[in-house]
Amino acid sequence: MINLSGKFRYYLCTDNVTLRFRHRGLREYIKSKLHRDPCNGDVYIFLSRNLSRLRVYYFHHNGEILTEKILHAHRFTHPIFLDEGKHVYHISWSSFVYLLEGIIRKEKDEYFDEYEEDATDGEELQELV
């Protein structure tokens, strides 16, 4: 069962990553390009080039989970950040939900701000992983 909540850290990848990658391909991409540990419980979000597909990858309870949402008539909101030079952005749970559900907020500057977590959130997360 997929059980995503605000307890996870969410990372939106803005590179053009081929969605032909499955578990192993995305795991290797996260290791080599993003220099992150794909098995630490963080959630990685990838969008297709035409923004019709959103793929979510994460490692949970000794297994990899890869799920995808495909839009047939619409497109996901294109993420825009102030610092466009990065490959991956830490976003909040609410931004993830807005992206997944296709909700466009009125304050677009606020919509894809990079998420800054409190020290207590990080400590709480380490206990869960």
Mind explaining what this structure looks like?
- The chain has 129 residues and is an alpha+beta fold.
- Residues 119-129 have low confidence and may be disordered.
- Strands 4-3-2-1-5 form a 5-stranded mixed sheet.
- It has helices spanning 23-32, 93-101, 108-111, 119-128; strands spanning 10-13, 43-47, 53-60, 63-70, 88-91.
- The chain is globular and about 35 Å long.
- Helix 1 links the parallel strand 1 (10-13) and strand 2 (43-47).
- It contains 4 helices and 5 strands, in the order βαββββααα.
C-alpha end-to-end distance: 17 Å
Look at the structure and give the mean pLDDT: 77
Largest sheet: 5 strands, mixed
**SS-based structural class?**
alpha+beta
Low-confidence stretches: 119-129
* Helix-strand topology string: EHEEEEHHH
The radius of gyration computed from the alpha-carbon positions, rounded to a whole number of angstroms, is 14 Å
Q: Provide the helix percentage.
A: 25-40%
Count the E strands.
5
Strand line-up of the largest beta sheet: 4-3-2-1-5
- Write down the overall geometry: globular
- What proportion strand? 15-25%
Quickly describe the structure.
This protein has 129 residues and is an alpha+beta fold. The chain is built from 4 helices and 5 strands.
Give the key terms.
alpha+beta, five-stranded mixed β-sheet, 4 helices, 5 strands
